[in-house]
């Protein structure tokens, strides 16, 4: 009869050292993979056959041409000089008639077109909401990728410390972007029959800089009049809230390096104006979590947003 093999039990210290050795062997590969993921890699501008020009004209004084790159597994656009709107329409059998403009973020210097644009719009369309990704005009950045990457690092490192601009300056500071967002509302309403959209049920959701544009569109323009808004990891400092302000959904992570350490008085302002508001403060998630799957509860923001839309009857067809 064959003798059973003897089990060898290693002392804890040796097992610990072996685990460290294995981790050390794997670490260079992991670090390299992370660096490759974070690296900005230029790509050819993708075909955008469904994109519709908004008619706001080319960015005044622009010298650099639109270009695209990949980072974190997503596509980004920069030096956008002509604004467009790309529709993502729901299955007619599921369509509620509500619509939403999706504004990606990127510090008004780049746009996270997948994570905060197309991926969000597809998910909303699957829920019956007609979604429209706005590629708004951006501030000009260096043509070379190295210089652009350096400028972004400098901007975001300073953004965590810099005071936020007053809401009253939004109309002047974001004039091209506000013209684009207002034109987007106008275009959707003009094609409401074609896209089966209720003109009184068009909202807007923005991420980071896109959230700033959403708030400015709501508070600094007269023609857009969004029916509801989403502010996803945008600044939540105090603003003057009109009595007819739309319902607002806001979400941010407490460890957001840009806005998580600031005050959230905008929520109190909305409540003081007796306007509907829902606020999700996630313990962790950082900045820019968007539609990325993460091991944090911030990943649940989209499901919470959809439930909130349903609570406000945006998923239920309304026949006038």
UniProtKB/TrEMBL annotation:
Keywords: Hydrolase, Signal
A Pfam family that the UniProt record links to this protein: DLH
Residue intervals of the Dienelactone hydrolase domain: 116-290
Signal peptide: 1-33
Protein name: Dienelactone hydrolase domain-containing protein
Annotated source species: Sphingomonas bisphenolicum
